[in-house]
Structures are given as structure tokens and as C-alpha cells.
Design a protein that fits this description.
260 residues, alpha/beta, Rossmann fold, 7-stranded mixed beta sheet, globular
Length: 260
């Protein structure tokens, strides 16, 4: 197996995005481009932070960043990575985001909320969005990504059924369209500013190769084979996806909580 903490020690925070599937680095670039460096002690909450890569990345850009995860092991790993990366303003807490309404101490505390590939795991997505918006200060921003409803599923199980899946483990819905996300924003009284997309043809195909080699042969071999190929999507993904008219993996939104 790959020692992920060792990679972070060796290569720094960027290594957090290069030991999993390629969609992770795609999402980080999408977030990073919408998260300007700040020296104003702006606050950020990461809803469903996983191993903490995005929380730490946000902290390194100047944000007082709080990552929430329901998984204790993920939190432990995230804290270790934050220490290695010297991300002193990255904090982590155990929190089931399905019960975010219980955290009144977080209400109207944050300038930015990020929620990346998490909402598709939650049955009551309407409530989740309302709870996230409640945590934003007036004038705060939401950056959210989710599976695109029309993506080409790499595995048959990605076609469903979804209705009986366990929350937090598997997807409970196929994905979202722009209209579905706009509906959620309107329901939560937040202004949808922009809809974009990420992770195209090359990212998806190389992720498929990585997954196949990991499951069928060896995780280390999968990482070594895919590592030198990771540069290709960064250069060619948009052009090739457009040529093949290939749907993206994720749909992404930027939204704004009115100041008044």
C-alpha cells in the first residue's frame, strides 16, 4: 500500500491530490480558482471534509478553515496532514452533517462554505443546503460540486438503484442538473451565480484505469502507472471532452447569500 502521509511529508500538501482518483485534483483547481488568497482571517467551513485535503488547502490560502467529517479515522489523518503541512488555521471536528442544525455555534460564522461530492450521499439534500446556508454570514459564498446527472457511469452500479442505499456510504441519487441545483438554491434563499463543470474524458478514463488496477492487481502499481499520466487531463481534458461531446463527471455551482 501507499504511505499517504509519507507522500505528504515528501512532497507537501499537493501530494494529497495525487494519490487518489483524478477527479480530486480537478475539484481542487476548481475550488482554488474561486478561493482568493486572504489576509483578512476569513472563515471557511468544509462540509464532509474527508481526509482534509481541501480544508488544509484553504487554510494555506489564509482561511480559518473548519473541516467536518463523521469518520473518526479520517479526522485523525486530516489532523496529521495539517501538522505536516503547517496549516495552523485548519481545524477538524467530528460532525454528522445530517444534523448540522444542532450546531448553533456555527450559525452565521463563515465567509465561505465548500461542499464537494457530498450532497449525493445525503437523502434530505434540501435540508442539508438550508443548514449550510445557515452557517454562512450574510454575503457568504457556497462552492459546491456533485455528480452531473448526465455523466457516463464508469461502473454499472453507478446506474442505481439508489433509493435503498445507506447514506454516507453510497450515492443515494444519480446526480444533479443545473435546474435541480437552482431549485435547491431558490428554496434556501441563496443566489445562484454560476454553473460550471469539471472532470472530463481523460480524467474519467484515467480514473477508471486507476480503479481497475487497484482492485484487480495492486494499489501501488495503479499509482505508479497513473502518476505520470496525471498531467494529461490538465492540458488536454477540455479540448478532448469537447471533441467527443463527453459529459463531465461533476457539476459545480457558485452561490451567494444575500447581504440584506
Amino acid at each position: 500500500m501507499i504511505d499517504k502521509l509519507f507522500l505528504v511529508k515528501l512532497f507537501g500538501h499537493s501530494a494529497s491530490f495525487f494519490h487518489g482518483d483524478l477527479s480530486v485534483i480537478d475539484r481542487w483547481f476548481w475550488v482554488k480558482n474561486r478561493l482568493p488568497i486572504t489576509k483578512d482571517q476569513e472563515t471557511l467551513i468544509d462540509i464532509g471534509c474527508g481526509n482534509g485535503a481541501f480544508t488544509i488547502g484553504s487554510a494555506l490560502r489564509g482561511y480559518q478553515a473548519l473541516g467536518l467529517t463523521w469518520d473518526n479515522n479520517s479526522q485523525i489523518q486530516a489532523k496529521k496532514r495539517a501538522v505536516i503541512c503547517r496549516a495552523d488555521t485548519a481545524k477538524f471536528e467530528i460532525q454528522d452533517v445530517r444534523h448540522l442544525e444542532d450546531r448553533e455555534d456555527l450559525f452565521e460564522k463563515f465567509n465561505v462554505a465548500i461542499c464537494l461530492e457530498n450532497i449525493e450521499h445525503i437523502l434530505d439534500d434540501r435540508k442539508l443546503i438550508k443548514d449550510i446556508i445557515r452557517c454562512l454570514k450574510p454575503g457568504g459564498r457556497l462552492l459546491l460540486t456533485a455528480p452531473y446527472y448526465y455523466f457516463n457511469p464508469p461502473r454499472d452500479e453507478d446506474n442505481g438503484p439508489f433509493k435503498n442505499q445507506m447514506e454516507g456510504i453510497r450515492h443515494v441519487r444519480r446526480g444533479y442538473t443545473p435546474a435541480m441545483l437552482e431549485e435547491l438554491c431558490i428554496d434556501s434563499n441563496i443566489m445562484l451565480e454560476k454553473v460550471t463543470y469539471c472532470s472530463g474524458f481523460l480524467s474519467q478514463k484515467l480514473t477508471g484505469l486507476y480503479t481497475f488496477l487497484t482492485l484487480r492487481i495492486n494499489p501501488l502499481l495503479a499509482w505508479l502507472v497513473v502518476l505520470p499520466l496525471r498531467i494529461l487531463p490538465l492540458i488536454f481534458d477540455k479540448a478532448i471532452s469537447k471533441f467527443f461531446n463527453w459529459p463531465t463527471w461533476s457539476i459545480c455551482i457558485e452561490a451567494y447569500k444575500p447581504r440584506f
